[in-house]
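I had to read the description of the data format several times before I understood it. For illustration, here is how one protein appears when written out as sequence plus structure tokens:
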Amino acid sequence: MAIKRRSKVDPSFSMSSMTDIVFLLLIFFLVTSTLVNPNALKLLLPKSTNQISSKALVSISIRHYLQSNTFSYHINGKNTPVQLSDIEKIVQEELMESEEPTISLHVDRTVPMEQVVNIMNIAKRNQYRIILATAPE
């Protein structure tokens, strides 16, 4: 009595589901890589070997335009400049419910210290921690 199987096992492997997963991972990494750098402004930061592990909640960037000797202030890497008089109100709204309010200050090398002190005074008045961002050496 020879009993034969009617169905044969197909040893082939379908790669279509594997390519779907690869494309989904590719899209995920492309989207997340654009979110990694919150400071979209090109600034020449001073160099330092010290690193702080604290995570800033608000980022303030100061740009210096040498031709006209003017300054622009940007909050959280946005391209739209903010007036110096409006910064305190915007930062207060951003840090209203945070336990350890921290500001990261990104300043171009050519910005005079007076502009940096203006932002530091805002942080001191509101008892915020402030971190001066630097480029690694």
